[in-house]
Amino acid sequence: MPGPGVAAYLILSVILFATGAFGVLIRRSPLIVLLALEIMLNAGNLALIAFARQTGTGSGQIFALTVMVVAAAEAVVGLGLIVAVSRRRVDLDVDKLTTLHG
Amino acid sequence: MTPFQTPSIDWAALSPELILLGGAAICLLVPLFLAHGWRRHFCAFVSMGCFIGAGAAAVALFQMDETGTSVVADAMRRDRLAELAQVLIVGSGLLTVGVSYAYVLRERMGEYYTLLLTAAAGMCFFVAANDLMTMFLGLEWFSISLYILCAMAIEEVASLEAGLKYLIVGSFGSAILLFGSAFVYGATGALGFEDIAAASGDADQLFLVTGLAMIIVGLGFKASAAPFHMWTPDVYQGAPTPVTAFMSAATKIAALVLTMRLLVTAFPSEENLWTISLAVIVCISLAWGNLGALVQTNVKRLLAYSSISHAGFLLMPIAVGTSLGGRALLYYLIPYAAMSIGAFAVVGARERELARPVTLDDMAGMGWERPGMGAAMTLFMFGFIGLPPAGLFIGKFYAFSAAVDRGWTWLAIVGAVATAVSVYYYLGVVRAMYFQPAAVRVAPAGGSPPRELALGTSVVLAVVVTIGSFVAAQPLLDIATDAVSFLSFPH
After folding, report:
1. What is the average pLDDT across B377-399?
2. Do A24 and B161 touch (CB under 8 A)?
3. Partner-chain contact A78 B171, CB within 8 Å
């Protein structure tokens, strides 16, 4: 029995991307924001792989592998920064990061 | 089964990046074996050597490559556009080393220079990108380096905040760029810029146009063009001043050169869409950047808004989509990068003297106290307006005339109005330096640090490039014409 088609994966990736984007825009904890960013990147990955299947080319899969590496590096830097901020302040809230404004 | 064949790699084309990465490895490892006092000097000199070496490699490649070729399995371009951009990026890096020399991060100067070198290497890689994957990889390569650089002064909350904000907003932009790339790939089945252009005829237009729009948004975030600029003032203000100087010049060069290459090579048949959408971004950037700058009191923040408005001026020649525009962009970048680093260097020097963030009032009397720095800052401010003897005069002239040439006189008028508005805040800095009575200041504990020779040298070099690009405009314009000659512009 055939599984869901490429279109279903694309729809899922759009939903994931939208979820991630909303998460970045409305959540306050930097940790959750970082999580939402990872969801956005992985939505891109899913779309790349689905399109690789649809177009019958392999380059999309290689691209997705590369993105995984990049996403991991980004998460490391992000978590490092959050740890550094949390050592300086007790409450983690992006709305309270307002030393810089104008 | 056919044997697996790896693509042949043109090491010469990658030499600027490799030299910078080699330097990064040295700066990271060797200082461990050096006495504390020597680390800072050692790393600065290694970085300086690597920037000069990478620049020499890029210049040599520029001399060699009469025509452009695709290298490393068509993932990268080896052509004069990339090489000219690389020269400008490593030049910015070199000036930044001078600005950074006085800057002391207690234990972390090795890491600082390492990240400066990797960021520059990533940008050199990015401007040579010839497919969407290399583009994304290069973008993240230099972005991640810059996120850490912004947060490098971890004792200061402002610096940490700048790093975290840049990371969140920058990654948001990258994720949009990635999703757009996926759509373009889905529509055309190709990642290479030329292959996308070749396949776009019978591609799914909905996917292609959505993807193109998302890619433009993603690159707009990096170029700090409005309405994707919201991170710029905070990050420029909070990041260590040498980092801000580097970012304001080098990131703009990389993002704008690649935007032009991508749009012209990969999307020639969609030019009616991207030219007009870039023109809209130009107008918003000019309006927002200049109006925002009017009310700023912090000088770094003021310069950040100025940088947003210059993103508008720089996107204008890309938006018109002509070879005249391409030439204007590349020429404009030369004085702009020098002046931007120079202006932030002067602010950095003032910051060092006062040991606190510099507001416009803090600039009062600087023109008399430090005549050299004051004169340089005056030149940069007049230059940003677009007055001679700064090269930006000619840059703006060519950018506007490219718009008029395309028949978009209205865009040139918007640019002229924006320039007129900008006179107010640029002259505000000059006024503060010369005509505002200096407030009685309490010197920082231990007295002001001595003047910094390396920083001064960087400012002098920036002045030389600013005026030199005006005096030697014709040879530089010829070089810029050479660099864009093989791109087939849609108009």
Report:
1. 93
2. no
3. yes
Nearest chain B residue to A82 by CA distance is B164
| Arithmetic mean of pLDDT, B61-85 | 89
Instruction: Provide the chain B residues 209-268 that lie in CB contact (below 8 A) with chain A.
Output: 233-234, 237-238
Q: In the predicted model, what is the mean pLDDT of residues B59-85?
A: 89
Q: What is the pLDDT of residue B415?
A: 94
Would you list the domain boundaries of chain B? Answer: 15-442+449-484
pLDDT of residue B42 exceeding 90 = yes
Q: Name the burial class of residue B323, with classes exposed (0-12), middle (13-18) and buried (19+) by CB atoms within 10 angstroms of its CB.
A: middle
- Domains of chain A and CATH, by start: 6-87 (1.10.287.3510)
Output DSSP code: residue B78: E
Residue A66 contacts B where some CB pair is shorter than 8 Å? yes
What integer pLDDT is reported at residue B22 of this predicted model?
96
Neighbours of A8 (CB within 10 A): 11
**Averaged pLDDT score across all residues of chain A:** 88
Q: Write out the E strands in B68-145.
A: 69-71, 76-78
- What would the pLDDT profile of B405-454 be if each residue is shown by its tens digit? 999 999 999 999 999 999 999 999 999 999 988 776 656 666 666 678 89
Distance of CA B341 to the CA centre of its chain: 10
Judged by CB atoms within 8 Å, which residues 13-52 of A form the interface with B? Answer: 13, 17, 20-21, 24, 30, 33-34, 37, 40-41, 43-44, 47-48, 50-52
